[in-house]
Write a structure and sequence with these properties.
mainly alpha
């Protein structure tokens, strides 16, 4: 009887420490403040302008489209 009480008390304390949700849910990026999401600046620069690298006819031929209307 005493063992069951001790076990129940330990189980209750363990559940209280863990709380609701998994570790992944508690540390989800959407729940972190924005200023803690990253510690360094993004090293990537802005992207250059996009441009065509092949003509539309060869692009449609490559993906197997016969009619390009």
């Amino acid at each position: 009887m005493i063992r069951a009480g001790i076990f129940a008390a330990l189980l209750l304390m363990g559940m209280a420490l863990v709380g609701c949700g998994t570790v992944k849910e508690k540390t989800a990026p959407c729940k972190r403040p924005a200023n803690l999401s990253a510690y360094a600046e993004d090293p990537r620069g802005p992207c250059a302008a996009m441009r065509l690298i092949n003509d539309p006819v060869s692009a449609f031929e490559a993906i197997g489209v016969l009619d390009q209307h």
